Amino acid sequence: MRGTAVPATTTGALGSTGPADFFGELYISFWIPTAVLTAALVLKLPSIVKLWRDSLLRAVGGVLLLACFVFVFAVPSVIAWTNRVVGVPNVAAPWVYSLITAFCACCLLLIVAWRNGPADRSAATRRLMRWVVAVYAGVIVVLWVLFALADVPRERLRDLDTYYATTPFIREEILLYLVAHTAACLITYRLIRNWVRAESLDVWLRGGLQALGLGCALNLVFDAAKLTAVVARWTGHDLNWLSTDVAPPVAALAAICIAVGFILPHSGQYLHDRWRVRTSHRRLRPLYLLTRTVDDSRVPFALRATPELRLTRRETFIRDALLRLTRHLDEDLRRRAYDAALDLGHEAGRAKALAAAVAIQDAVATRRRSPESEETATATAALLTGPLVFPGRGTAVASGGSSGGASGSGGASGSGAGDPAGASGRTSFPEFRVSSDPTDLLQDIEAVSLVLREPAEIEAVRALAAASPAESGVPARE
Q1: What is the mean pLDDT of residues 284-291?
Q2: For a designed S-S bond to 261, which of 97, 212, 419, 470 qualifies (C-beta 3.0 to 4.6 A apart)?
Q3: Is 11 helix (H, G, I), strand (E, B) or coil?
Q4: Half-sphere exposure of residue 9, counting CA atoms within 13 Å on the CB side?
Q5: Which residues pair with 156 in a beta bridge?
Q6: Closest by alpha carbon to 414, among 476, 459, 352?
Q7: Burial code of 297-314, b = ≥16 C-beta within 10 A, e = fewer?
């Protein structure tokens, strides 16, 4: 029987009637999950290759690779091709069942690695992983033995599970792979459900686990549909549509959910980081355009620069320009602009940014009216800079100013020694102190850049700050 040729008329086999018939046999419901699973594997592959000793990553790679193989070789047209190449009717059945069983084993290995952590190399963990491999390897061997003993001469491309549901040996083979698959999905689903309740998970990992859990639940629906159709054949009923029409699309949805579960934690965090970096770069544009006018320079363009490098270069350019502007900053104007912004109803943080914007615009105008010589600019930069490190970038400014001045650079967060809080009637706002240390300006560049998008607010603050204290109601500060 094993040497007999595949019958010429097979259920759903590919013929040679033309391109239209060929494309009609492509089975998009199989290829879509295959494409999604392949995308997930491609995203994970660099990490898998780089950290090959990590059992967790190896299990992830195995799950994705085997899931791709399952959907490729389960396509009816590929089943017909496999049978024709090997020359044995229905030989694709134990092959697909073996892939599904290996997929189950990788799922369980993945759960073991996740549960115990990739650093766990205990004897119990190794023993459990060996047990999983041994059991499912044994199942695969039994599948092939049962197929060798079965008599299945008629090729079935779509309904083999129900067509041969009552045939000796193949009946046991079908039941064995379904039970093995169901057991793996039940264990995986339960462990994922318990894990997703942990409070320490970030939003992307939690979403990925939820997608994996949904994929396992849909796989259980697939198993239920197949088992129901098979048992119905045992009892003389016909529910073949559950196996041929319901189970395949459910399996496709399950595969998509599993792929999303692996893609989401990696790609979601990656895209979030890229969005954050690009947003910060875009927010700094107004201040960057303003500081470019200090000496008509710009950040050199680099085609291959990463978003992080472009952001760092823009931040560095802005801070260097602000250091060159320090000698032109009118700190009295800045202090009065802060008070004016508070009088206009702005909260303390925005008032500080508006005041800085007014002072920086004034300093830029002053510098353009009386540009420094190169020697003076160099001396000023050398005097102001020292070991300069910025918050979030690993630096703290130790400028030429005194340490006592730095203590007052917190802007709106410091307690001032100027006019008493009650004198201005703003007991809810902190006092604003200005020192010769430019640290606070260098820290708040994004906030200053954002307010530069509101020229009307800046002009209102400038106008109120330019008025005399008697006219504006802004108390003078020593």
Answers
A1: 89
A2: 212
A3: strand
A4: 0
A5: 11
A6: 352
A7: eeeeeeeeeeeeebbebb
